[in-house]
Predict the structure.
Amino acid sequence: MFILALKSSSFDCSFIAKMANSLPWTAPEGCYEHHRAVLERFVNSLPAAWRQDPTVGEVFDSRKDAETRLQLFSLVQGFDVVCRGGGSGTQLGQEIRCIHHSQVARNDRGLEDRVTHDREGNITSQRRRQGTNVRQTGCTWRVRIACVLINKKDEAQGREWRLTKASLTHQGHELLENPLATYPAQ
């Protein structure tokens, strides 16, 4: 209630926001007890700012740092991400999406939809497992990182990894209490 009263007044809340960023992160109630200490130690070992929403213009030392930052954010929020291409021969980049993106599952190997068997029960299809978990919901959460020139007028200054686009809205799925339970039992 104290924070709500401060927000409704003319008091500058930036101090409270800074304090919240510096507090250690604690795992939510739904997190398994035997994972709690390790998870909290890991999350708190990384910069507290990485637990906040990604913002366009953020700069990273490397692509790996950008991926780690976004994976940490998704872990704390209760979802998972996948990394996809997104660059070209002249422009290095990557798109990072919510694991529930798209409407259909990828099928890069061209497998059949179902496992087929012959009369003796031997598998005759390329697909070997019937029970695959497909959880695509068309979620639109995505972030794009790119290796861009620091100064477009002076290429000698080099390049940096920068967050260039962000769509931070989830669709079709709930965020999870237990950050390690990406696929809860149904």
